[in-house]
Amino acid sequence: MRLSLVAFAVIVTLTTRAETVPSYQGMVPVTLAKTYDKDKDVSQYWASEKLDGIRALWNGKFLHTRSGKRIYAPHWFTNSLPKIALDGELWAGRGQFHVVQRTVLDKVPSDSAWRNIFFVVFDLPNKSGNYKIRYEELNNILNIKNQTHIIPIQQKALTSDGDLMAFLSQIENLGGEGVMLRELNSPYLSGRNNSLLKLKSYRDQEARVIGYKQGKGRLKGKIGSILVRTEDNLEFYIGSGLTDEQRSSPPKLGTVVTFKYSGVTQNGIPRFARLLRIRNE
After folding, report:
1. pLDDT (0 to 100) of residue 203
2. Catalytic member of 34, 40, 50, 216
3. pLDDT digits (tens, 9 = 90+) for 25-53
4. 48 and 158 in one domain?
5. How confident is the model over 261-277, as pLDDT tens digits?
6. Helix or strand (DSSP H, E) at 137
7. Domain shared by 209 and 177, yes or no
8. DSSP one-letter string for 59-85
9. Which pLDDT score, from 0 to 100, does residue 20 have?
10. Is the per-residue pLDDT at 201 higher than 70?
11. Where is the DNA ligase OB-like domain (predicted)?
């Protein structure tokens, strides 16, 4: 990609890839979703609402984010969790991502704030068997625990693409983000794969901040756009969607952001990319 050189532009880039995920003993591997495409047989998947929260893994001792950062939850929140690995989402309801982020990423947990958080559990990463078997065991475990803030994700069987699109419409009309599809006959697989798919009315993706470009005009002295790199090593700028506060204090280098877009160019670059949120987990 050609970069126009502007006298007062300041572009800072990372010299090394920032995508490396830290690992340590006890870190639970995580399944990451691919985007749904119409060649999939939806009868081989279960559908659930895509929750607008922070992915969280329980390793039997403490919660951590998918990148390995420890989550400092109050003791009462985790003391009834089983001594086995759980994969789920910390969630506060539709449209409440900001509540989750400011609550669960605080190293000094606020007891009152955590009262608004649910741990919605998707899967049992260390259990063998297909998803139907793991989901049944997951429900049995959580039913025994009988905690109102720890709940299994609700799954829906599908028979056709029409079922899927009707479910997506229902979720979005309720203010939800989209739909997740889990392959029934798949073992738990770490990394991005087809056992977990996501579907929304718009496309979105994650990228890592690797640089900045200074603003012009009314944005002089602030950040005009952020330079990002996707998992596919595509680099481009995102300016749309940045608030004035974010332009004055932009996300740090290495931060993961989510953006939405409409199609791609011939070079594979997302078109009309717009920042959705900064993911500090």
Report:
1. 84
2. 50
3. 567 889 999 999 888 999 999 999 999 99
4. yes
5. 988 888 899 989 999 99
6. helix 131-145
7. no
8. -SS-EE-TTS-EE---HHHHTTS-SS-
9. 31
10. yes
11. 214-279
For the record, the structure tokens of 174 come out as 């309720």
Structure tokens at 175: 């203010």
Q: Name the token pair of 84.
A: 């086995």
Counted domains in the chain: 2
For residues 58 and 182, membership in a common domain is answered with: yes
225 falls within a domain = yes
User: What CATH number is given to the structural domain containing 58?
Assistant: 3.30.470.30
Domain residue limits at 225: 203-279
Q: Are residues 70 and 116 in the same domain?
A: yes
By mean pLDDT, which of 102-111, 246-255, 264-273 is the weakest? 264-273
Q: What number is the average pLDDT over the span 82-90?
A: 96
Q: How much is the pLDDT for 27?
A: 79
Which whole number is the average pLDDT over 172-183? 94
The two beta strands, 45-49 and 156-157, are antiparallel
Take residue 227 and report the two structure tokens written for it. Answer: 């330079």
Q: Which helix (H) or strand (E) holds 171?
A: helix 161-173
* DSSP 8-class letter at 229: E
- Token pair belonging to 129: 């068997």
Read off the pLDDT of residues 90-104 as tens digits, 9 standing for 90 and up.
Answer: 999 999 999 999 999
Q: Is 50 among the catalytic positions?
A: yes
Both tokens of 158, joined, read 């599908």
Q: What is the CATH number of the domain that holds 210?
A: 2.40.50.140
Q: Which residues contact 129 (CB under 8 A, 6 or more apart)?
A: 137, 187
Structure tokens at 71: 């989550």
Handedness of CA 189, 123, 261, 162 (dihedral sign): positive
